[in-house]
Amino acid sequence: MSSSLARAVTCYLDAQGCGANGLCTTSFDGLNVIRLSEKTPPSGMVYKPSLCITLQGAKAVEFGDAIFEYGAMAFLLVSIEIPALGRVTEASPECPYIGITLDLDAGILREVMSELAQPPVPSNDQGIGVFVADLSEDLADCIRRLIRLLDNPAALRILWPAIMREICFWLLTGPHAGEVCKLVLPDSHMQRVAEAIHLLRANFTKPVRIEHLAAVARMSLSSFHQHFKTLTSMTPLQYQKQLRLLEARRLMVSEDVNVSHAAFEVGYESPSQFSRDYVRRFGTAPKRDVMELRSFII
């Protein structure tokens, strides 16, 4: 199954005219395919609840203090929105990195879980809302069929709900079902923190009041700090800082904004403080980092 899935993805990328390097968006909302012929520098983004699959090569993703590495026919499941740095660690022209990201639909997950004769029991693990696991044959078969449907929009429109339900079924009945089910448990700590994160993301350029976030999560201040740090591997202020730095990096790389302007645009009052935080996060000064990123993109 692994070889047939990799072939299906490679054929799709070639048919779409996707080159040796780059992200290929698909006609299926929330499904993206990527192929890279070389290792990459750390690239920042905010991960949504999603299934991130490596078919060939290897990748490492850093969420705060936690680093997750996964190789061929393994996946990273993210259950809550988290800013992160990801990089491809194994890739070459002869054996390029090939990966798939699929956004998870909480509504379908919730629907499927309600129909299970024996719904999964939430695990007692209080760790970060991310885990790595091997891609099962059943999940690989679902993804392969989804990729093949991309060439048939009429069939995709009708059949994708059934395939998404099947993907959710295998996730909710697999070895990590106790973690997956936490995405849709009503009034869970994860759901409450997710509500606070939604507010924080919408207002990340503004000063944040932790008391307000805790109130949105319907938690005491100490409980909110504990659960937020557990699920994201960072404090609310660190989370906000990561959002600011990622957006500033995007502005400088994609929109040719200078360092000072980017700093002020994302909410910093001091460009020098911005530069210090930037170096701590990305390991190099903003101007040098942007030049390196642009040269890689070119």
TrEMBL record:
Pfam families: AraC_N, HTH_18. InterPro entries: Homeodomain-like_sf, HTH_AraC, Tscrpt_reg_HTH_AraC_N. Signal peptide: none annotated. One of its GO terms (molecular function) is sequence-specific DNA binding. The keyword Oxidoreductase does not apply. Coiled coil: none annotated. Residues 194-292 form the HTH araC/xylS-type domain. The keyword Endoplasmic reticulum does not apply. Keywords: Transcription, Transcription regulation. This is AraC family transcriptional regulator. It comes from Komagataeibacter intermedius AF2.
